Amino acid sequence: MTANTELLTVPQVMERLQLGRTAVYDLIRSRQLTSLTLGRARRIPAHALTDFIRTRLDQEAAA
């Protein structure tokens, strides 16, 4: 699986962003972080996490 198609679990995203579960689900709920549901499992595409970080960095640089 390439980085473009890699799917991350919520705990993996929590670890990478150093955020709690509620904060990650808040990002998903507010559509700042794209995710998909497979059955009952929530997955975040790796590229969506990269895009989120890039967007936040751009916002910080513009502020």
Automatic annotation (TrEMBL):
InterPro entries: HTH_17 (IPR041657), SinI_DNA-bd (IPR010093). Keywords: DNA-binding. The keyword DNA-binding applies. It holds the Pfam family HTH_17. GO terms for molecular function: DNA binding. Residues 7-56 form the Helix-turn-helix domain. This is DNA-binding protein. It comes from Streptomyces tsukubensis.
